[in-house]
Specification:
The protein is mainly α. Helix content is 62%, strand content 0%. Keywords: Plasmid.
């Protein structure tokens, strides 16, 4: 079974004809849209994942560890 990917990369989004039509209709410049996507991607990369956040909390608090760990 092949793995499918649902999300577009920034490059793919910038080349997508449907997205281009919507941007034109809304009066959004492609460069502005590119900056928006890049800014959002950087902010997303900086967020810790919920699992790593949880692990950081419990590693600093031995009482928070489960009895089976």
């Amino acid at each position: 079974m092949s793995k499918t990917r649902e999300d577009l990369t920034i490059t793919e989004a910038l080349r997508d004809p449907l997205i281009a039509m919507v941007l034109r209709a809304d009066g959004v410049k492609i460069d502005d849209f590119k900056r928006l996507l890049e800014t959002a991607a950087k902010k997303r990369e900086q967020r810790p994942s919920p699992v790593s956040k949880f692990m950081n909390v419990i590693s600093g608090n031995p009482a928070a560890m489960c009895s089976f760990c």
